[in-house]
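Predict the 3D structure for this chain.
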Amino acid sequence: MSKRKLSTNAFIFCTMCIALNVVLGSFISKIVPFLYLDAAGTILGAVLFGPIAGILIGLVTNLITAISTNPLEAFFAIINMMIGLITGLIARRWKFTIPVAIVTGVILTIACSFVGSFIAQFVYGGLTGTSIDVIYLALKQSGVETFNAIFTTRILTNLADKVLCCVFVAIVIQHLPKSMLKGSSRL
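Done. Predicted structure below.
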């Protein structure tokens, strides 16, 4: 396959990853409280095409959601970009199997929760207008300091979300045609 054909295919696939993020993020969050799956496309793109592709998919996803739903989503672009970077680096080093996906999900949970807590506190004052506010408010009512309440809420909700996203991607990759995986990160 020519380099031009490969980059055209990669561009098209990365565009589909952005659409996957937007659609899953919009749909899942409305039917399953505390779950978003809005980074599955970022993770998939990062695993297949590396950390730079993952960073760009994450950035464009959040810019689209900032324009289409909530301008403050732009602040969370750093998190989606971080997901692309971390996942892409892990996929370069190890084959993205289900055990690697689970470990990656845990790493992403910790990193995203930490950075997301600062964003939630300084941009939103703690309340983000999502279903996780219920947990945050319960913790605040019980006397937990603001940052700790935000961080605890994010750890609890991100653990399921990020691990599920990573495992979903590992399963998808197992079922992709070998021709599609040629030239991608260590698969």
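Residues 22 and 64 are 8 Å apart (CA to CA).
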